[in-house]
Amino acid sequence: MSKFAIAKNGVEPDAVPKKILYTGAEIPAIGLGTFGSDRFTHAQVADAVRDAISVGYRHIDCASVYGNENEIGKVLAEVIDAGVPRQELWITSKVWNDMHGPGDILCACARSLKDLQLDYLDLYLVHWPFPNFHSPGCDVNSRSPDAKPYIHEEFMKTWRQMERLVEAGLVRHIGTSNMTVAKMKLLLRDARIKPVCNEMELHPHFQQLELFQYCIDNQIQPIGFCPIGSPTRPDRDKTGDDTVDIEDPVVLKIAERLGVHAAVVCLKWAFKRGQIPIPFSVHHNEYLSNLIAATKDHLTDAEMAELDKIDKNCRLIKGQVFLWKDNQRWEDLWDINGEITPE
Ligand SMILES: NC(=O)c1ccc[n+]([C@@H]2O[C@H](COP(=O)([O-])OP(=O)(O)OC[C@H]3O[C@@H](n4cnc5c(N)ncnc54)[C@H](OP(=O)(O)O)[C@@H]3O)[C@@H](O)[C@H]2O)c1
Fold first, then answer.
1. d(C-alpha 124, C-alpha 222), whole Å
2. What CATH number should be reported for the domain whose range is 13-334?
3. For the segment 9-48, what is each residue's pLDDT rounded down to a tens digit?
4. Is the CB of 232 under 6 A from ligand 1?
5. What residue owns the CA closest to ligand 1's atom 4?
6. 120 an active-site residue?
7. Model confidence over 293-319: pLDDT tens digits?
8. pLDDT tens string 51-80
C-alpha cells in the first residue's frame, strides 16, 4: 500500500483501468506523454510529471531524444522517496535512432536509466526502425546523407541487443514503435522475445485499422501516440492536408453530450477501442481531465460506430527526415502496399 497521498480531486491509481500484457504484467491504460517539443522547457515537462503523479498518473512515456530524462529522473527519485512504490510506476523509455549499432543499445539504456535514476525500465522501445540520425527540431525537408532504409538483418541485430537487456534484468519488457505490418511480421518470425507493445500514431482521424488489428491478434498491446491529434504541434510538423480531430463535428457532438473538451472524446475513443493513449499536457486541468476520462462516462457503441467512420487516414508524424533517397515520398516509409519498400 502506497504511503503517498493522492491530491484532492485526483484519481487513486487503483481506480485507473489496466491492460494485461502477454507476460501477465499490468500496465495503466493511460500514460502521460513527455515530448515538450520546442513549446515547453524540460523543467515545465518535469513539473507536469511530478504533479501528474500526485493526481494519480503512474505511467510515464519518456524517450532519450526528448532531452528531458535527466529532469524527469529527479522527479521520479523525489516521488519514490516520498513513498510512491517503484513497482507502482510504469516507466517507458526509447532508444534513439543513432544508437542501433553494436553495443549501442546497452549504452543508450544505461544512459536512460542513469538519467531517470532507475534500476530498471518497465518498457524499452526501439523508437523508429530506421537507424538514421537527424538533429532535434530539424526541418522536415532536411535529409541525412547517411540515411539507410529498413534492413531486417540489421534490425534483428538491434533487437537481439534489446532481448539481452531483458535477460540482464535492465528492462522488464521490450517493444517497438513506428512499425508497419510488413516489418512486424518479420520481427515476430525472428524474435526470441516478442514485443509486448507497439507504440503507434492513433487518433480518430488516423485509426490504422490493419496494424492495430495485427497487434491485437498477436497479443501486442498498441500504445497510441498523438491521441488527440497533436493539435498544437509545431508548424514544421504540419502540412496543408492534415485534418484536426478536435474540430471534427462527430467528436464535437459527443463532447457536447458529455460536457467535456473534444480532446477527452478522442481519449475515450482510445480507451474503448483498446489502445493505451499517452496524451501530453503540461496543464493541470488538462492532464487531470484526461486521467479522469479513463474512469467514467464511456462512449456508447453507437458513438464508437460513428467515430469509426471519421477515419481520414491522416498520418501526422510522417517521418520525412528518415527517407534515404532523393525523390522519395514519405509514404515509402510506411510500406503502404504491404511490402517493405526496397533499398
Ligand atoms: N513513439 C513516437 O514516435 C512518438 C511520436 C510522437 C509522440 N509520442 C509520444 O506521445 C505523446 C503525445 O503526443 P503529442 O504530444 O504529439 O500529441 P497529443 O497528446 O495528441 O496532443 C497534445 C496536446 O493536446 C492538448 N491537450 C491535451 N489534453 C487536453 C485536454 N484535456 N483539453 C484540451 N487540450 C488538450 C495540449 O495542447 P496545449 O499544450 O496547447 O494545451 C497538448 O499539447 C508525446 O508527448 C510523446 O510522449 C511518441
1. 14
2. 3.20.20.100
3. 999 999 999 999 999 999 999 999 999 988 999 999 999 9
4. yes
5. 225
6. no
7. 999 989 999 999 999 999 999 999 999
8. 999 999 999 999 999 999 999 999 999 999
Look at ligand 1, atom 8, and give the residue with the nearest C-alpha: 225
Kindly give the distance from the C-alpha atom of residue 228 to the centroid of ligand 1, in angstroms, as a whole number: 6
- What whole-number distance in Å separates Cα of residue 320 and Cα of residue 318? 6
User: pTM value?
Assistant: 0.97
Percent of the chain having pLDDT more than 70?
99
Query: Closest ligand 1 atom to the C-alpha of 228?
Result: 20
Query: Whole-angstrom Cα distance, residue 205 to residue 245?
Result: 6
What is the residue type of 262? Answer: A
Report residue 231's pLDDT band, with 50, 70 and 90 as the boundaries: very high
Identified catalytic residue from 57, 66, 124, 150: 66
Distance 99 CA to ligand 1 centre (A): 25
Which residues does 41 contact at the CB level (< 8 Å), separation at least 6? none
Q: How far is CA 89 from CA 59, 196, 248, in A?
A: 6, 17, 34
Domain boundaries along the sequence of the chain: 13-334
From atom 40 of ligand 1, which residue's Cα is the shortest distance away?
232
Q: Is residue 34 within 6 Å of ligand 1 at its C-beta?
A: yes
Q: If you write DSSP's letter for every residue of 211-248 in order, what string do you get? A: HHHHHHHTT-EEEEESTT--TT--GGG--TT---GGG-
Q: Atom 21 (ligand 1): residue with closest C-alpha?
A: 230
